[in-house]
Design goal:
InterPro entries: AmpC-like, Beta-lactam-related, Beta-lactam/transpept-like. Keywords: Membrane, Signal, Transmembrane, Transmembrane helix. This protein starts with a helix and ends with a helix. It has two domains: about 350 residues, Beta-lactamase, CATH 3.40.710.10; about 100 residues. The protein has 16 helices and 15 strands. Strands 2-1-14-13-12-11-10-9 form an eight-stranded antiparallel sheet, with helices on both faces. Strands 7-6-15 form a three-stranded mixed sheet, with no helix packed on it. It has about 475 residues and is an alpha+beta fold.
């Protein structure tokens, strides 16, 4: 009997690892095939993907090129977009654990020179409010001070000065409004408390501790590591972008890292480490404000509390890059996806890829790849062309007419001029974003909108001139 039991145990011990390895090999093949199809479908020039599962690197691969033509490697630098926020939050939580910051203290305690208008709201903005985007500072106000391309050690202070005297539009602590301003203020608080620049603090206290030696938080350091700007998208086609790197935007969008370094951060997120004790790590990854269904926003994280599907993650984008960081501690895996192309109309592409990788790792099956959709660009282009043809036709008719209905043609001309003046303000209101943001993240659509404005203005002014000339001739 003992021999039979020993044989059974030996068989289990031998076969189980083989079956686990077989599953992993299958998943690796699926991921490779899936990524190649997704990259081709979404026309992404350069990609780096790294996955940790059960304490080991189960997959790490790179595809394509940077904007200078060099190959993407595991040490290629990508801007992280809003994946920067969890790293900034980690720095804050470290200071909280050290007793330098209290989560529920007013920011006035740490930034006495920064002022904001409460608009009769009662609560002060707290550190927790900034982390969870419940400060009452609107998304629009935050975007006004983003993508400014400020450079140098004083860039964060410069941006905070531009934000000074901002008006709140909600009671602090009550409404989630995703705003870059919140993490800009957190970076300024770090600078005031530590007497270091944000970049210096992140380097000495966060990146060095995690052995993330190729992760940087300022433009000069990025250049030293041969950082290359990414690509913007025109109808899906990648076009090399101008350099958008913004030192003042580092705490919420412009930390730059590599897949090798992000693996070390993922390992910390899965296993813990010396940066935070278990108590503060739990707080760091805890849900704070409800968003929808089982989704919450935490202290720099998007969090799913769905039963049997709990995870935390964050996506990120700059005008020329997109990233996805995903962590599932229950199922003991995490991954980082770094890409070097972006457009507002392509915001779902890396989301689809992220969900595809999740499906392969959890269900061991090949997911579908949704098709690209450039409907927004095509609609804008068609409207622009149709309007141009219509206006040329109307101007031709107006010029040839001997007798015209002056009031009617004047009204149409004036309305065209008014629409040309008000079109961009209307769009910024509808998208709840400044024009600079729209132009940075959707340059193809923005160009067509500018052409539309020019066409409307040209039609209105030209029509008024023709009407005036005809009126004089009649007199």
């Amino acid at each position: 009997m003992k021999k039979v039991m020993l044989c059974l145990i030996l068989v289990i011990v031998t076969i189980l690892p083989l079956s686990v390895n077989a599953v992993r090999n299958d998943q690796t093949i699926l991921i490779e095939e899936y990524m190649e199809k997704a990259i081709q479908e979404y026309q992404i020039p350069g990609v780096s993907l790294a996955i940790i599962k059960d304490g080991e690197i189960m997959f790490q691969e790179n595809w394509g090129i940077q904007s200078d033509g060099s190959r993407v490697t595991t040490d290629t630098l990508f801007t992280l977009g809003s994946v920067s926020k969890p790293l900034t939050s980690l720095a804050i939580m470290r200071l909280v654990e050290q007793g330098e910051i209290e989560l529920d203290h007013s920011i006035d305690t740490y930034l006495p020179t920064f002022t904001y208008h409460k608009n009769d709201y009662k609560n002060d903005i707290t550190i927790r409010d900034l982390l969870a985007h419940t400060s009452g500072i609107s998304s629009f106000e935050g975007l006004k001070i983003s993508e400014l391309k400020l450079r140098g050690e004083d860039s964060i202070n410069e941006a905070v000065e531009k934000l000074n005297n901002v008006k709140l539009n909600h009671e602090p602590g009550e409404v989630h409004q995703y705003s870059p301003a919140n993490y800009l203020l957190l970076a300024s608080i770090i600078e005031h408390i530590t007497n270091k620049t944000f970049s210096e603090y992140m380097e000495s206290e966060i990146f060095s501790t995690l052995d993330m030696n190729n992760t940087v938080s300022n433009y000069e350091a990025a250049l030293d590591l041969e950082y290359q700007p990414g690509f913007q998208s025109w109808f899906g086609r990648p076009i090399k972008s101008e350099n958008f790197f913004d030192d003042s935007g580092v705490p919420y969008g412009y930390i730059a890292s590599t897949s090798n370094d992000m693996l070390k951060y993922i390992d910390f997120l899965l296993e813990g480490g010396e940066l935070l004790t278990d108590q503060y790590f739990e707080l760091y990854t805890s849900p704070q404000v409800w968003r929808k269904e089982d989704m919450y926003y935490g202290l720099g994280w998007r969090i799913s509390t769905k039963k049997n599907d709990e995870f935390f993650f964050h996506g990120g984008e700059t005008p020329d890059s997109r990233a996805e960081l995903f962590i599932n501690r229950q199922k003991n895996y995490g991954f980082i996806l770094l890409t070097n192309k972006n457009n507002f109309s392509e915001v779902l592409h890396t989301f689809y890829i992220r969900e595809g990788i999740k499906t392969i790792l959890e269900d061991n099956r090949m997911p579908d790849i949704p098709k690209s959709n450039y409907q927004m660009q095509w609609i804008t282009l068609i409207v622009t062309c149709a309007l141009a043809i219509l206006i040329l036709f109307n101007l031709f008719r107006l010029k040839r007419k001997v007798i015209i209905h002056v009031k009617y043609w004047n009204m149409v001309a004036v309305l065209s001029v008014i629409l040309s003046i008000s079109l961009i303000p209307i769009l910024t209101y509808l998208f709840d974003a400044p024009w600079r943001t729209i132009y940075s993240f959707a340059p193809d659509t923005a160009i067509f909108i500018r052409i539309l404005v020019g066409i409307l203005a040209f039609y209105g002014i030209t029509s008024l001139i023709i009407i005036n000339v005809k009126r004089r001739k009649r007199v």
